[in-house]
Amino acid sequence: GATETTGNTLAWVISELMHNPHTMAKAQHEVRDVLGEGRSVITNSDLGELHYMPMILKEALRLHPPGPLIPRMAREDCTVMGYDIPKGTNVYINIFAISRDPRYWINPEEFMPERFENNNVNYKGTYFEFIPFGAGRRQCPGIQFSSSITEMALANLLYHFDWMLPDGANLASFDMSEKFGFAVSKKYDLKLRAIPHVWSNAMTLK
Ligand code: HEM
């Protein structure tokens, strides 16, 4: 529930960034530009300075919610959208479908972190079109913890390395399919080459 969700999220974020090189470049530029040259490990206290990174994470969680179906049980007989649901019925809320519903999202299949710019959509479970951590009294208690961990890991990966597809692979064949389970992971492991980032003079002199 904690490690798989967080690990899968990181794999999805990096996969989406590989798929969207402009977004990767923008994210790397932010983390390197804002934090400056010569840092060793990026820590939790650095994260407040990064504004694009949380949007990337939100967008990855919108498209790839690690827990796509939230279980609930009807506490009383009720009718929802014309369907009679007797007390005690197990109900699954399909976060995956809601997060890609064109009634709530413009170009829902596109990875577009900027859609979270200039709005207050957050993880608190009050924006029902975006509930990757669930909603209500059983909402995930690990939101803050997992956001910090994912952002810290991501910031370090983007700051210190440039990322390339392995030899013989290309973006057209880059696999984005899902393996369905309690926590949705990538069907095939993400394999990339990490190239340690070398600072150019232009950035050093900034
Ligand atoms: C990206 C990371 C994570 C995602 C997307 C996620 C998502 C979720 C979701 C959708 C639920 C069900 C919420 C509901 O029923 O309304 C849940 C429950 C829960 N999560 Fe997470 N989670 C993440 C990370 C974590 C972490 C890091 C921890 C602990 C350190 C954690 C602990 C829990 C616990 C204990 C519950 C059960 C809460 C309850 O039933 O009262 N989660 N999570």
UniProtKB/TrEMBL annotation:
InterPro entries: CYP450_71D (IPR052306), Cyt_P450 (IPR001128), Cyt_P450_CS (IPR017972), Cyt_P450_E_grp-I (IPR002401), Cyt_P450_sf (IPR036396). It is a single-pass membrane protein. Keywords: Heme, Iron, Membrane, Metal-binding, Monooxygenase, Oxidoreductase, Signal, Transmembrane, Transmembrane helix. Its cofactor is heme. GO terms for cellular component: membrane. Its main location: membrane. Heme binds at C140. Gene3D superfamilies: Cytochrome P450 (1.10.630.10). It holds the Pfam family p450. The keyword Oxidoreductase applies. It is found in: Membrane. One of its GO terms (molecular function) is iron ion binding. Belongs to the cytochrome P450 family. PANTHER family: OS06G0641600 PROTEIN, OS08G0105600 PROTEIN. This is Cytochrome P450. The lineage of its organism: Eukaryota, Viridiplantae, Streptophyta, Embryophyta, Tracheophyta.
